[in-house]
Amino acid sequence: MAVENLPQRARRDEEVDVAIVGAGPSGSVAALHLARAGFSVVVLEQGQWPDYADYTGARPEHELVSTKVWHPNPNVRDNPRDYPIDTSTSDINPLMFAGVGGSATLYGAQWMHFLPSDFRVRSLDGVAEDWPFTYEDLLPFQLEIEREVGVSGLSGDPAFPPRGPYPFPALPMGSVGRRGALGMERMGWHWWPGSNAIPSEKFGELNPCVRRGTCLTGCPEGAKSTTDRSHWPLAQKAGARLVTEARVKEIQTDAAGLATGLVYVTANGRERRQRAKVIILCANGVGTPRLLLMSGGSRHPDGLANSSGLVGKRLMMHPFASILASYEDLLDSWRGPFGQQVYSLEFYETDERRGFVRGSKWNCMPSGGPVGVSGAMGSKVYVAEEGRFQDFWGENLHRNVAKRFGHSLVWGIVGEDLPEESNQVVLSKTLVDSDGLPAPQIIYKVNDNSQRLLKFNIDRCLESVRAAGAIEMLVSVPVRESGWHLIGTTLMGTDPKTSVVNQWGATHDVPNLYIMDASTFPTSGATNPTATIMAVALRNTRRLIAERRSQKVA
Amino acid sequence: MTNSETFLALADFLIPSYQTKPGFRLVSTYEDGLHALGFRSDLREAFERALTVDMSVGAEAALEKLNAQDDAAFSALTTIVITTYYMNPKVRESIGYPGQENVAYDSKATQSYLVDGSLARVIARGRKYRPTPGL
Q1: Among chain B residues, CA nearest to A200
Q2: What is the rounded CA–CA span in Å between residue A224 and residue A209?
Q3: DSSP string covering B46-106, please?
Q4: DSSP E strands: which ranges in A259-376?
Q5: A211 and B39: CB-CB below 8 Å?
Q6: A212 min Cα distance to partner chain B (Å)
Q7: pLDDT tens readout for residues A47-87
Q8: pLDDT at residue A5, as a whole number
Q9: How many pairs of residues across A and B have Cβ atoms under 8 Å apart?
Q10: What mean pLDDT is predicted for residues A477-504?
Q11: Of A1-5, A114-118, A142-146, A279-283, which range is least confident?
Q12: With contacts defined as CB-CB under 8 Å, which chain B residues touch A377?
């Protein structure tokens, strides 16, 4: 592939050097760095640019509106730019958002690297697969991405190898964080001030955090780092072209098996084609396998890049538990940052005496407004199925709100999810999206290892919150609405017979088709994956740039 | 009963006066409920269906019936009732809720955990990660 070393702005009908599917965290990283390196780049995004005036966090109706319009489950949100998902065969609902910035639009911005052992689970624990590269290989890219994203945090955590300082100081730890830390301290367990993709000072297009506490439903301040603010202004300046409301329905290939372009549907239903020398999929662990499975055609009836039979398989979603703990003291628990004020990696590494392998990450968060903590509406995560409605209404409503509102915190427990081929994404035979394309169906069971892991961690967490004086503890496990992390459905590996992509994200079957989202991760770790997703995307992009002369194209 | 009377009767059962907390009707009106409903047009049909419930059996029995037979209507009604109530400025004042507020802070201020010894104790407990080079 010959690429001029000057930025090129692509026209609609021309063949571009690279076409990317998805303008979320990984697609944005690839677009920025490829455009800066002189590649002509087009990104097709099925959603729209965010309008920050639509985020309701600062308005009285926030708890009413956000439980629909900004719900992370596309089936609840029911926005025509999303695709529906058949979750009837899944224990957990996958969560995502279509738009510039991707699903991070609704993330908590908890910023965590994977740990060294996450890349070596086969060698250390005898399960799943090692990654083709190591923590040390990825660290330089992690640190570079942190500077692009504007992460705040405190270095020196003994749960990680030594590293340099974060770009910005850690956000202030509120009463919630201090109370969470107190429990850990009394147990003699690990805790550390939260690292978040939320700069504590003005950074580029990002404003400093004002602790609004509505990170999960879109940040009205423009303070939470999402790539519509951190990457896209720079990518467009470098010449990358972004096409919104463009839903890709097929990857086209030629007789030689090389990718030639993408077919997409515009908002008004017109079909268009984008020709490209290289295609990169960044559509998340559900959207990417869905597109590959839709793209096989007669030459590949089981889906494109699927000679291994693994496209869509090994879906990992991080089974999640949460504990809402209430205290006598006022903790101002509606205040942010919502992401994580404190985290703990006390139980991250394997200890076989616990009866399971791998481990967990805990994050301490505020509990939000009165409606959410009442248990009477919204996610209902703390409401027992068999409960009577009177338990949550009448005088009980007032008692529950008085006990919890302003006085509570939430520990979230993320458990490592081990890959199993039976947990998978397939195409629905009956459900379609607003363009008539088959919706994905999720087949997913929380496995025995995860069940034991969550039980152990819940028991320990209850010990911790009791040690800090909790007067009420409500447990939810596994939380059905918790599939934020969509991982593993196009496995990375060295053998084309047992993996879908190589260590640089290139599919074994189609050398000019890449995948750069968390689909490729061999294992899931137990930390929030966005940091690692963006770092791996940067590593892959740099390789693609360096090898541009030898890249095979149609 | 009119829709307004049905709504307020059900809302008052769901949120009665309790200690210093006002009941629904003391601070909010049917029109307030309709204003809230304006933010959630997806609930309108189920909400209107909820107000057709037979009230001759009393508010509690009517709600029992809705909860058992029409979950969507029960959910729409209770969603509007609770959010209308907690959007009310008087109610917010009574529970000490300023809303999701903007809180100024000094990003360079020294955090207490750096000087009170608590984080030093975490560090003193030693390395937690398993090193991997050389595997």
Answers
A1: B107
A2: 7
A3: HHHHHTTS-GGG-HHHHHHHHHHH-HHHHHHHHHHHHHHHHHSHHHHHHHT---S------
A4: 259-265, 271-281, 320-326, 342-344, 360-366
A5: no
A6: 5
A7: 999 999 999 999 999 999 999 999 999 999 999 899 999 99
A8: 40
A9: 170
A10: 96
A11: A1-5
A12: 75, 78-79, 82-83
pTM: 0.96
Q: Are A288 and A26 in contact (CB under 8 A)?
A: no
Residue range A195-234, pLDDT digits in tens: 999 999 999 999 999 999 999 999 999 999 999 999 999 9
Closest CA to A502 of A489, A483, A515: A515
The alpha-carbon gap from B62 to the nearest alpha carbon of chain A, in Å, equals 12
More confident residue, A13 or A157: A157
Q: What is the pLDDT of residue A387?
A: 66
CA–chain centroid gap for B110, Å, is: 35
The mean predicted confidence, pLDDT, of chain A is: 94
A234, A383, B57 from A388: Cα distances, Å: 54, 9, 19
Q: What one-character DSSP code corresponds to residue B111?
A: P
- Judge contact between A414 and A320, C-beta under 8 A: yes
Minimal-distance CA residue of chain A relative to B123: A158
Tell me if chain A has a CB within 8 Å of the CB of B113.
yes
Q: Determine the residue among A120, A137, A207, A377 to mutate to test chain B binding: the one whose Cβ has the most chain B Cβ atoms within 10 Å.
A: A377
Per the structure block, which two tokens stand in for A329? 């003291």
Q: Is the pLDDT of residue A297 over 90?
A: no
Give the angle subtended at the CA of B57 by the CAs of B52 and B63, to the nearest 5°.
60
pLDDT band at A189 (very low <50, low <70, confident <90, very high): very high
Residue A506 bridge partners (DSSP):
A514
Of A457, A277, A426, the closest CA to residue A355 belongs to: A457
- The sheet with strand A192-193 has its strands ordered as A192-193, A342-344, A360-366, A408-415, A320-326, A472-476
CA pair distance A247, A45, nearest whole angstrom = 7
What ipTM was assigned to the predicted interfaces of this complex? 0.96
Contacts of B11 in chain A (CB under 8 A): none
Between vectors from CA A37 to CA A33 and to CA A40, what angle results, nearest 5°?
Answer: 90
| Residue A394 φ/ψ region, left for φ over 0, alpha for ψ in the -120 to 50 degree band, beta for the rest | left
Cβ within 8 Å, pair B42-A123: no
First and final C-alpha spacing in chain A: 10
Nearest chain A residue to B20 by CA: give it. Answer: A398
Q: How confident is the model at residue A14 (pLDDT cuts 50, 70, 90)?
A: confident
Contact residues, chain A, for B111 at CB < 8 Å: 170, 172-173, 193
